Amino acid sequence: MKLIILFAVAMLLNGCAGKSDYELLQSNKTIEEKNVSSRSIEYRILPQDRLDVTLFKDPQQNIGTGARLGESIKQEGILVNASGYITLPLIEKIKVAGLTQSEAAEHIMKEYKKHLNSPTVYVEVMNKRLYVLGEVKTPGVLKLDKEKMTLFEALAFAGGLTDSAVRSEILIISNDTRKGMKIRKVDLTNFDTMRYAGLMLRPNDIVYVKPNKWKKFKVASDDMTSPFETISKVAAPFVTLKYLSK
Questions:
Q1: Sign of the CA dihedral 29, 128, 40, 37?
Q2: Is the pTM of the predicted complex or chain greater than 0.85?
């Protein structure tokens, strides 16, 4: 029994010393974002986004949408296909992927001007969201009704940090269609190292709060001791019978 206990402890210590299967994103490769502007924050439409397209037009001109003045062309939104195009009444296919919401509205309006008197178009992405994972009280998806959100806002919506959270290494994963995927690290314990750019979150960003070493040790110990608990539960009736038969 002593040998088994020593073996289990050795395995636990060895598991905690190396990489943990419980903790995500254990690479140290992070990028510090130094500059931020309204242009860099503004969301650009992606394939598979769903758009709310609203057309303001002369009510005397019917384009067959069935929508009244100021109503969305399609109530459930219009899906951007894999090639980055949407299909609209009268103007058919038009490419919007890679454009901001305001740029897409301007682009669509120019096409409608070929057929309508003084049209105005409004475009909004309906599926903008963030993902908060790890050591927060309510991890999950946060829907966005604006272009950006700060890290503090996202953590507040997620119920705040748990007692097991590593507050000095909050990771933010972003995917830029032009620059690719990057990871930023934010230390919430040091005000001097915080930068406004580093705290800004954009749609589709993933916030991951790492667990502390004690949480990783506890999870690893539970994984190691669970087989012994199962064995003890299975063996308990036989031990009881042997004791009663004496």
A1: negative
A2: no
